[in-house]
Amino acid sequence: MRQTRSPDACPALVLNADFRPLSYYPLSLWSWQEAVKSVFLDRVNIIQTYDQKVRSPSLDMKLPSVVALKNYVSPARYPAFTRFNLFLRDKFSCQYCGATDDLTFDHVIPRSKGGLTRWDNVVAACAPCNLRKANKMPEVAGMIPRQKPIRPTVFDLHKNGRLFPPNYLHESWLDYLYWDTELEA
Fold first, then answer.
1. Quick one: what percent of the chain has pLDDT higher than 70?
2. What count of other Cβ atoms lies within 10 Å of the Cβ of residue 51?
3. Please, what is the Cα angle at 122 between 80 and 77, to 5 degrees?
4. How far apart are alpha carbons 28 and 40 in whole angstroms?
5. Is the pLDDT confidence value at 41 over 70?
6. Helices (H) and strands (E) in the chain, counts
7. Which residue has the higher pLDDT, 26 or 11?
8. Is pLDDT of 177 > 90?
9. Three-state DSSP state, 63
10. Could you tell me which residues come within 8 angstroms of residue 58 by beta carbon, excluding any fewer than 6 positions away?
11. Are 32 and 7 in contact (CB under 8 A)?
12. CB-side exposure of 56: number of CA atoms within 13 Å?
């Protein structure tokens, strides 16, 4: 007996017109509904399909597993300053001790001393290090970040994102991603 999967378990990898993923982390995925809608609106080309089909009275279609936009979308050069992007820049590790649990963010120059919430003044920090540093200057606390905080480019975040592959990688996606094939699910 052949096992069928739910269409909801069939996301489509979305590639830009240059056949690169729109995003690596999070990986640019669309639901099967979004992918099929985009096919019918002539916004994408189907590159790969699943064996799974959707049917209607007038349609019998294999679900797309990889689609490419017909029109190139220029990626932003610099990402938005968000907690997630900050953690990704810092590779999800405390910039003081290297811990990866209980992450917060720390103002290198404390706000109470005029420090601003910007890329060049905020680092990922575990809660214990953040509490220990408190509102002290790095030199006074004896806590210098491992890496100087900088404003990353989208390329920098994509590069770091490749270090954290998603839990699920369909085999049809591997030719378009840079992870090792040993990581396939």
1. 93
2. 11
3. 25
4. 20
5. yes
6. 5, 6
7. 11
8. no
9. strand
10. none
11. yes
12. 4
For 142, left (φ over 0), alpha (ψ -120 to 50), or beta?
Answer: left
Does residue 184 carry a pLDDT above 50?
no
127-166: b or e for each residue (b if 16 or more CB lie within 10 Å)?
Answer: eebbeebeeeebeeeebebeeebeebeeebbbebbeeebb
Kindly state the DSSP code that residue 6 receives in the 8-state scheme.
-
Place of tokens 């210098």: 144
d(CA 130, CA 104): 7
Q: Residue 41 carries which side chain, given as an amino acid letter? A: L
Q: Helix or strand or coil: residue 58?
A: coil
Residue with tokens 């369909």: 170
State the burial class of residue 89 (Cβ atoms within 10 Å of its Cβ: 0-12, 13-18, 19+): buried
CA distance 106 to 90: 12
Distance CA(45)–CA(58), nearest Å, equals 21
The rounded radius of gyration (Å) of the Cα atoms in the chain is: 21
Q: What are phi and psi of 97, to 5 degrees?
A: -120, -10
| Residue type at position 156 | D
CA distances from 137 to 74, 109, 110, 120, 149 (A): 40, 6, 7, 15, 15
- Are 108 and 149 within 8 A, CB to CB? yes
Decide if 21 contacts 28 (C-beta within 8 A): yes
